[in-house]
Amino acid sequence: MNIERIVLLVAGSMVLASAILTVWHTVEWIYLAGFVGANLMFSAMTGFCPMVIILRKLGFKHGKSFT
C-alpha cells in the first residue's frame, strides 16, 4: 500500500467514525470531521501533510494511486 492510499483511507475512516459517533453519542464529534476536512484542504493548497512525513519515516513509498 502506498502513502496516498493510506492518507485517503485514514481520512475517510476518521470522517465515517465522526459521523457515526455524532449520531450515536454526541453532536460534538462532528468537529472531528471538520478538522479532517480542514486538514485535507490545507494539504491540498500547501502540499504539506504531517501524516505523509510520518509514513515516509515508517518506510512507506509514494505510488500511483489512481491508475
Description of the molecule:
The relative contact order is 0.22. The chain is elongated and about 35 Å long. Helix 1 runs antiparallel to helix 2. The two termini are 13 Å apart. It has helices at 3-24, 30-46, 50-57. It has one domain. It has 67 residues and is mostly helical.
What count of domains describes the coordinates? 1
Number of distinct beta strands: 0
**Major sheet:** none
Shape: elongated
Q: Unreliable segments (pLDDT under 50, ≥5 consecutive)?
A: none
Number of helices: 3
How far apart are the termini? 13 Å
* Helix residue percentage: over 70%
Overall pLDDT confidence: 92
Q: What is the N-to-C order of secondary-structure elements (H for helix, E for strand)?
A: HHH
Structural class estimated from helices and strands: mainly alpha
Radius of gyration: 14 Å
Quaternary state, please? single chain
Q: Bin the strand percentage.
A: under 5%
Protein topology:
Elements (H helix, E strand, L loop, with lengths): L2 H22 L5 H17 L3 H8 L10
Helix pairs in contact: 1-2
Descriptive key words:
single chain, 67 residues, mainly alpha, 3 helices
How would you concisely characterize the structure shown here?
The chain is mainly alpha-helical. The protein has helices at 3-24, 30-46, 50-57. The chain contains three helices and no strands.
